[in-house]
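Appendix B. Chain record.
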Amino acid sequence: MVRFPDAPDPLDEAFPLGDGTADDTAEAACPYCGEPCELTLDPGGGAHQEYVEDCPVCCRPWRVTARWTDGVAAVTLETEDE
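Structure tokens predicted for this chain:
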């Protein structure tokens, strides 16, 4: 496939994460115990993701919401019982 430098990349619409250097980690605090932790993110899964992950300290489940804008991740954690 021949690529032209000024042609739009067809993957930009499918993966709107900026320049290819999207955040793949984020800092957050457990909504139950307050312990700070680092989450590993998968920007290739889409610009908006929701999933459940357990706290590595107190083992209670979080509802994780991750959104990327221009490659920068914004993460929120909520208790699973909210």
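Further analysis of this model is presented in Appendix C.
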